Amino acid sequence: MKKTPPGEFRSTLRVIQSDQCNHHSACESCSIRHVAMCNVLNEEEVNLLNEISSDFNRDSKQVLCAEGDPADYLFNVREGTVRLSKMLADGRRQITGFLFPGDFFGLACKDVYSYTAEAITPVETCRFQRRKITEKFRELPQLGERVFEMTTTELQSAHDQMLLLGRKSAREKLCSFLIYMADKTRTIGGYPPNHAYLPMSRADVADYLGLTVETVSRQFTKLAQEDLIRLDSAHNVILLDPESLQEMSEGE
Amino acid sequence: MKKTPPGEFRSTLRVIQSDQCNHHSACESCSIRHVAMCNVLNEEEVNLLNEISSDFNRDSKQVLCAEGDPADYLFNVREGTVRLSKMLADGRRQITGFLFPGDFFGLACKDVYSYTAEAITPVETCRFQRRKITEKFRELPQLGERVFEMTTTELQSAHDQMLLLGRKSAREKLCSFLIYMADKTRTIGGYPPNHAYLPMSRADVADYLGLTVETVSRQFTKLAQEDLIRLDSAHNVILLDPESLQEMSEGE
DNA sequence: CGCTTATTTGAGAGAAGTCAAGTACGGTGG
DNA sequence: CCACCGTACTTGACTTCTCTCAAATAAGCG
């Protein structure tokens, strides 16, 4: 579960949380270009970053990078939803994460990408040459620290997801997922409270939770029958009882 | 799966692989104290590190740090085996990783530890105050880069483990685990080739693979019956047909 | 509007879990 | 050194949750 627990931020690294960015007005390109980085950089530094980045936009269902490709680029999602996945020889797939505006990918690999990144919706990203961006870490240590901190957060989420995949029931998995997506929907904004917008297909949800499409669908139906959620459409869910869902997601 | 694929190392970060450490003879305290760090540091820098580190040794089954504790320390395992785990409210447990000499833990968290670390065998670690070690990243950027690179490798392993937990059968999971442990055993040294020394209990293996003890035990028996492995004892396994095991671990 | 694809629903099968019992191992004390 | 005890591991019988296969319904798109 990519659960980002709320609460005070007290990292020993000097970084600032995304929602604490306080120079949006002064830095227009920031919010447009480098969503996740602007928080720790001033306008001049963002411009420095703009020099080595280039837009990379793709339509829904297109591949941004493939498992095994030379890992030349680091990506920053600006708009849309991306899925990262790994496959077994016979085609079984595991989605290791969904990415939303502000998220990065392309760092956690050595010479080749260890996962495939695909656009779930039309996406806008900016892309840096890894070689160049890691050089920039020298000039802008706060940038390096911010990226390190994000990697660390991602590792924590990965551990949460391992607990989900290894030990939770189908029902608990789906509850966790709904809580997670409601949180993401809230962050992205533009939806009523307790709304979870699910841009991905049921198959994606299944491959994220280590289930089959049918099981996911059945669990959705069951939660709706119990009035814990309301399915406005397959991709728009209202959490009618977030507290219960939260509890069930943790096996209480 | 904490699979560290062999192959050339071409990270954009200027770090050196563990097995490329070439000043072991010149730096005695290095191999003794800071297993994973000495590779990128010279003797003087290692001494600098020694100043802020202190020994922290524990017997088998003791807790090194607990989920929810203030995350004050970063640990470097020098000797022995450690398990990291997370628990659900009702006691279901997921082991997110086993740690061996050279491994770190305690960084991937904000103010509190997000997992429990316990000694499987008697362990020797050295412990740094996170506050102090992150300060050191300023003075010794190559140290920061090395730690960042290790975090990145760990994130990749976490993704491999998600694929295992979400999509592999019990048999495939155990094959993956045996390949992984044979690799670790080789790295640690002192055992014949194709030997996998398993310091952890069957319950630990089960909680690592998202299975029950009984299922793990049955799969061990089945692999032995098929002459793919030989169980010298519950904790010492010979891989009789590593190629087949490897193939099966990837679902071929 | 018709076609394709996505989602839901149903029935049956199977892999892994649960519960229970037996066996082997390892440490401790006589 | 061996016997004993507790724990760890293995094995068996049975249950169950999730998967598989199949079909119906709904949604999206040209």
Describe the protein.
- Two copies of one chain form a homodimer.
- With 252 residues, chain A is an alpha+beta fold.
- Chain A has two domains: 8-164, Jelly Rolls (Sandwich), CATH 2.60.120.10; 168-249, Winged helix-like DNA-binding domain superfamily/Winged helix DNA-binding domain (Arc Repressor Mutant, subunit A), CATH 1.10.10.
- The first copy, chain A, is 40% helix and 21% strand.
- Chain A has eight helices and eleven strands.
- Chain A has helices at 28-33, 43-52, 130-139, 141-167, 170-188, 202-209, 213-225, 242-249; strands at 53-58, 63-65, 73-79, 82-87, 93-99, 104-105, 116-119, 123-129, 195-197, 229-233, 236-239.
- In chain A, the strands form three sheets. A four-stranded antiparallel beta sheet of chain A has the order 1-8-3-6. In chain A, strands 2-7-4-5 form a four-stranded antiparallel beta sheet.
- In chain A, helix 3 (130-139) crosses helix 4 (141-167), helix 5 crosses helix 8 (242-249) and helix 6 packs across helix 7.
- Chains A and B meet through strand 5, helix 3 and helix 4 of A and strand 5, helix 3 and helix 4 of B.
- The first copy, chain A, binds a DNA duplex (30 and 30 nucleotides) through helix 7.
